[in-house]
Specification:
Layout lengths: L6 H18 L13 E2 L9 E3 L1 H9 L3 H10 L11 E3 L3 E4 L3 H14 L13 E6 L10 H19 L3 E8 L4 H16 L15 H14 L13 H21 L6 E4 L9 H11 L3 E4 L2 E4 L10 E4 L7 H15 L4 E7 L3 H14 L6 E6 L2 E5 L2 E2 L12 H8 L1 H10 L6 E4 H4 L7 H21 L15 H10 L2 H11 L4 H21 L13 H24 L9
Parallel strand pairs: 5-6, 5-11, 6-7, 11-12, 13-15
Antiparallel strand pairs: 1-2, 2-4, 3-4, 8-9, 9-10, 13-14
Helix pairs in contact: 1-3, 2-3, 4-19, 5-13, 5-17, 6-7, 6-8, 9-10, 10-11, 12-13, 13-18, 15-18, 15-19, 16-18, 16-19, 18-19
Length: 566
């Protein structure tokens, strides 16, 4: 039996064989056959797949599309995966999967369990997803949460597609922003000892800074107090950044995000010489120039509109220089085949020049992908929620998770394309009804689990069920929707658009509810999951178990729980 992950390629192959047979019979001219003509139609009423080959061959074959489609359909080889094709104007060849193939997919889902729908397009390749990477100067806000949900789901899906995945958080623990953070922290620390020390003009005014200073005072007393007017002690800078990074880790942990590596920006300038090595490559290639007392990356020679400063006239590297060294480490030292950076949309101006720099270092043209996500607006009762209770500036991720839960936050963050601005409806996210898509999807999983539990109470299990007994349209309809998951995984892994996951989850939940409702609407006891016919019941329980596997899989890819009770 054909692997469900390869069904489109298999059908493409059958079409090619049909064309070859038609050419051999003299019914079609010997023309080049395009690949990839089998696709999912918008309307599946006439078939699971539609072939557009006839329209694409019409000009070269000098025949009407409908006529070509009829010839191809007539020569279509018999195959166990598909029923005989049907032709429809203006030249579609509609293909419907066979009942036997669909029934077999129930067994496949059960056998594979948590690996169901895994693909192979990334096999043998290493990929890194770097996401969130917020400066350790304050708590994570809801915008960071959107980046976390996107990055984590994308990493999980790439792993499901066969990639060897690493998740990374880049800790910006060097530069002017950390200096400003330290100066603010030291001002708050001094205030705890009665000094009238103002925070810097561009400092961080949130209450969290006072809390952090109090935490340090409780642990170390006045150990970091210096004479008035002195600058922030280096030790306080280090401790403050470490504590803030610890708080960020805790927030991400509560959000269900785990990283393989937390990468320190400071390490780029360590004795290992990553910074020097990266710039040695650029210098050897003639892509650095000294002008106006500064060092420039001559990106205009490589297609950019202008050159970019990498070392200022005072000798300090720019953050672009740090990014160059960091990506040198990613591609050249660590050898990732694919690197995906998930950034806020405010970084859009940095994308092109960084891609140019990575190519200059020796990375492949498309090895670096940057996914930009837009801002999040929170609404409650139709009104925009503007301020955090704790920081006075932002709404923290912790506050949102505490109010709506990790699963709801993740689902809503993923629901729209990263490039689209989103409104997060807090009232909807906590509603326990089918209006809430999170509740709707998770309730479907809980219902599947309860069916299996109720059957077990009656001594009935899926074991030994004969899936050949699954012939009803609503039964096979549920299987058809399950079969889309491998395609969704491949789609997300090739387009880097994780919004397809929650939309598929809702479609699969719809298919289950349609399956369940079909039983509810019938008086005939033979049309229920648990019937007097033990063999039929066991077959349907196998379908329930398989659907539970598929739904749990997509929930897991989104980083959500799959509850058995709600």
């Amino acid at each position: 039996m054909v692997d469900s992950r390869d069904i489109r390629q298999h059908l493409d192959g059958l079409v090619a064989r049909a064309v070859a047979a038609a050419v051999a019979a003299g019914e079609l001219p010997d023309v080049a056959v395009p690949v990839g003509t089998v696709e999912r139609p918008k309307d599946t009423a006439k078939g699971d797949f539609a072939c557009t080959l006839a329209m694409r061959l019409a000009r070269s074959a000098m025949r009407p599309p409908l006529e070509i489609a009829k010839v191809v359909a007539r020569h279509f080889p018999a195959d166990a995966t598909v029923e005989p094709p049907e032709v429809a104007p203006p030249g579609f060849i509609n293909l419907r999967l066979s009942a036997a193939f669909l029934q077999e997919q129930v067994e496949t889902a059960i056998r594979l369990g948590g690996a169901y729908a895994d693909g192979a397009i990334g096999r043998g390749k290493r990929a890194q997803v770097e996401f969130v990477s917020a400066n350790p100067t304050g708590p994570l806000h809801v915008g960071n949460g959107r980046g976390a949900a996107i990055g984590d789901a994308l990493a999980s899906t790439l792993a499901a597609a066969g990639y060897e995945i690493e998740r990374e958080y880049y800790v910006n623990d060097a530069g002017t922003q950390t200096d400003t953070f330290s100066d603010t922290l030291y001002a708050r620390y001094q205030q705890l000892f009665g000094r009238d020390t103002p925070i810097p003009k561009d400092g961080y005014p949130g209450q969290y800074m006072s809390e952090l200073a109090a935490e340090i005072k409780d642990a170390a007393g006045d150990a970091f107090l210096r004479p008035e007017g002195a600058s922030c002690p280096l030790e306080l800078n280090t401790i403050g950044i470490e504590l803030m990074a610890k708080n960020i880790r805790a927030s991400l942990d509560a959000f269900g995000v785990r990283y393989d590596r937390w990468y320190s920006e400071k390490s780029l300038y360590s004795p290992e010489g990553l910074y020097e090595s990266a710039f040695g490559v650029l210098r050897a290639n003639g892509q650095l120039a000294e002008r106006e007392g500064a060092l420039w990356f001559t990106s205009s020679d490589l297609g950019e509109e202008k050159d970019n400063v990498v070392v200022r006239s005072d000798g300090r590297p720019t953050y672009f220089a740090s990014d160059i060294a960091y990506h040198y480490d990613k591609f050249i030292k660590r050898g990732f085949d694919l690197v995906i950076n998930v950034w806020g949309a405010d970084h859009h101006g940095h994308v092109s020049r960084l891609k140019t720099a990575t190519r200059a270092l020796g990375a492949a043209d498309d090895a670096l992908q940057v996914l930009l996500y837009q801002l999040v607006t929170l609404k409650r009762g139709g009104e925009v929620v503007r301020l955090s209770k704790r920081s006075g500036e932002i709404i923290s991720l912790d506050e949102l998770v505490e109010e709506v839960g990790k699963d709801a936050a993740r689902f809503f963050f993923l629901l729209r394309s990263p490039g689209a601005q989103m409104e997060f409806d807090i009232d909807l996210a906590v509603k326990q009804s089918s209006e809430n898509p999170v509740y709707y999807v998770q309730y479907a999983h809980a219902r599947l689990a309860s069916m299996l539990a109720r059957a077990a109470e009656q001594g009935l299990t899926p074991e030994g069920g004969d899936v050949a007994l699954l012939t009803q349209s609503h039964e096979l309809g549920l299987v058809r929707e399950m079969l889309r998951l491998p395609e969704v995984i491949e789609l997300v892994a090739t387009t880097y658009e994780p919004q397809h996951l929650p939309h598929y989850a809702m479609s699969l939940a719809n298919a289950f509810h349609a399956f369940n409702d079909a039983f509810k609407q019938q008086d005939d006891s033979s049309l229920k999951v648990i019937t007097d016919d033990v063999a039929l019941t066991k077959a349907r329980l196998r379908l329930v178990l398989a659907a539970k596997v598929a739904l749990a899989r997509v929930l897991d890819l989104m980083g959500m729980s799959a509850p058995d009770r709600m």
